[in-house]
């Protein structure tokens, strides 16, 4: 019977991946099952007593913590349980997390024996650390994106906002909004309208996407915002309230007719947002210049002088490529492109940081090297507050028709393809490549200036298009990319970037792009 019970116990412990230990209080020796020895990375004959000599195997701070917890468990006559999570350093140097649980056995009120179990919880601890990291980075984005972000409970009271939202309603800090509602800031008519909208979202589960709403204030003029609002559910699927993103579009709402045109345009652009891709997807898409409703304004400074065209194909829902067009006054425009390391949430968060940093560095936007240097300092400082190694390559050019100059600077990024006017060949672009953004806070970037009237076209791009591979794993390659670009130009047809992408897709034959594809071109008239 005893052997049968022991066999059953062994099977149960094996299934639970736990090991057992048994210690007579005060003795040097301790019993460990084979599984415990595996956790400690040692053999039974030289296994350390983790309870009597924790400093021999635990990291220092955990050893001190274990001693305190053990002392309390042994001294308190009413305490039966001993529990701790601690880090063990194996002889190989590898650190593992262990969950240790035990029962105190007493005789006449004195602790004489501890018996318990032990299990490796390293995977769970690492997952918790990764989750905390992701939350910290998400908070960085929420506080740095140039839009209002807010969460509200089922009574439409603010529970979380970013700095931009606090500034928008005239508060000095985010905490001033917590527990308040729109009724504390807007006119009764305006707050009643938003409250009705939010109740409808919670009742039906249907979001509001891309809607232009009028905000009426008691002590200032009306404003207009583009709104994305979604029902907010907790991890168990229970309704917690609503969350939303609002973008100030007051400047582009000049008349009712213009407002209707913009509303239709935004609804068309936001049609793809109907899928529930989450807040991160919504924020990232809203950052793209082709989606923010200001594209015509961005390129108006070079109207009649040049044509600007872009192509953006994300490989995943959250992309790491980004581009922007910066109007710099009449006859002058800046073109920016970047490629953040990796894919997914982290790269998308860094893209959002870069967008915010571009706004802060806007007073240097006439000069590419200074512009990149300012952005690099900001990105290094933000990433320096985390233990995450991230970087982004970038290229920035300024087309200045007033001074007949094309200024170019690169932060570890592919240099632009410059087509010589009146010919079918590329000019030699000899701009030194500086380090990628986010590596060194004191990095130095250089720029080169070319005569604009000698250039027919400048193409900026990320490596996703020429590194696209077919089913045999063979990449399209930069040579074929450049040759196809010149071939497309020679044909003289419109939609140049679409046809260039089509050539790349014909190479991969239905496999699709492995990486984000982003291209931005300026063609001189």
From TrEMBL:
The organism's place on the tree of life at top rank: Bacteria
Domain spans labelled PAC: 82-133
Keyword entries, A-Z: Hydrolase
NCBIfam families xref list: sensory_box
InterPro entries, per the entry: Bact_Sigma-Reg, PAC, PAS, PAS-assoc_C, PAS-like_dom_sf, PAS_4, PAS_fold_3, PPM-type-like_dom_sf
SUPFAM superfamilies assigned: PP2C-like (SSF81606), PYP-like sensor domain (PAS domain) (SSF55785)
Protein name listed in UniProt: PAC domain-containing protein
Keyword Hydrolase (UniProt): yes
Molecular function GO terms recorded: phosphatase activity
């Amino acid at each position: 019977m005893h052997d049968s019970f022991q066999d059953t116990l062994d099977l149960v412990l094996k299934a639970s991946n736990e090991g057992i230990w048994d210690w007579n209080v005060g003795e040097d020796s301790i019993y460990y099952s084979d599984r415990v020895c595996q956790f400690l990375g040692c053999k039974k004959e030289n296994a350390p007593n983790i309870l009597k000599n924790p400093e021999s195997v635990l990291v220092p701070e955990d050893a001190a913590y274990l001693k305190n917890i053990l002392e309390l468990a042994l001294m308190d006559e009413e305490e039966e349980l001993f529990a701790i999570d601690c880090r063990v350093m194996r002889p190989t140097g590898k650190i593992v997390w262990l969950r240790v649980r035990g029962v105190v056995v007493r005789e006449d009120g004195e602790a004489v024996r501890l018996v318990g179990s032990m299990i490796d919880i390293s995977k769970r601890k690492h997952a918790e650390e990764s989750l905390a990291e992701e939350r910290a980075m998400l908070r960085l984005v929420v506080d740095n994106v140039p839009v209002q972000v807010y969460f509200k409970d089922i009574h439409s009271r603010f529970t979380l906002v970013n700095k931009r939202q606090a500034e928008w309603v005239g508060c000095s800090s985010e905490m001033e909004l917590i527990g308040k509602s729109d009724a504390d800031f807007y006119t009764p008519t305006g707050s009643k309208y938003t409250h009705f909208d939010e109740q409808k979202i919670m009742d039906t589960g249907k979001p509001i996407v891309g809607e232009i709403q009028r905000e009426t204030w008691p002590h200032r003029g009306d404003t207009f915002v583009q709104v994305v609002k979604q029902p907010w559910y907790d991890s168990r699927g229970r309704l917690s309230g609503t969350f939303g993103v609002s973008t100030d579009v007051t400047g582009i709402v000049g008349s009712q007719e213009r407002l209707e045109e913009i509303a239709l345009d935004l609804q068309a652009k936001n049609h793809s947002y109907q899928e529930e891709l989450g807040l991160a997807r919504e924020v990232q898409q809203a950052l793209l210049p082709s989606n923010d409703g200001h594209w015509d304004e961005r390129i108006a400074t070079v109207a009649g002088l040049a044509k600007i065209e872009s192509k953006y194909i994300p490989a995943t829902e959250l992309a790491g490529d980004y581009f922007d067009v910066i109007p710099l006054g009449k006859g002058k425009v800046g073109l920016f492109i970047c490629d953040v390391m990796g894919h997914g949430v982290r790269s998308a968060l860094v893209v959002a940081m870069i967008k915010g940093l571009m706004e802060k560095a806007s007073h240097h936007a006439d000069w590419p090297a200074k512009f990149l240097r300012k952005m690099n300092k900001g990105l290094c400082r933000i990433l320096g507050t985390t233990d995450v190694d991230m970087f982004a390559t970038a290229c920035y050019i300024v087309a200045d028709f007033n001074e007949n100059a094309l200024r170019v600077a690169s932060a570890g990024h592919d240099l632009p393809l410059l087509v010589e006017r009146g010919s079918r060949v590329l000019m030699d672009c000899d701009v030194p490549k500086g380090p990628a953004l986010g590596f060194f806070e004191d990095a130095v970037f250089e720029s080169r200036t070319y005569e604009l009237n000698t250039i027919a076209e400048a193409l900026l791009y990320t490596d996703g298009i020429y590194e696209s591979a077919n089913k045999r794993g063979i990449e399209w390659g930069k040579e074929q990319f450049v040759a196809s670009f010149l071939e497309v130009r020679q044909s003289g047809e419109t939609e140049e970037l679409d046809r260039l992408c089509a050539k790349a897709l014909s190479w991969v034959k239905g496999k699709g792009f492995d990486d984000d594809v982003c291209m931005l071109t300026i063609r001189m008239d």
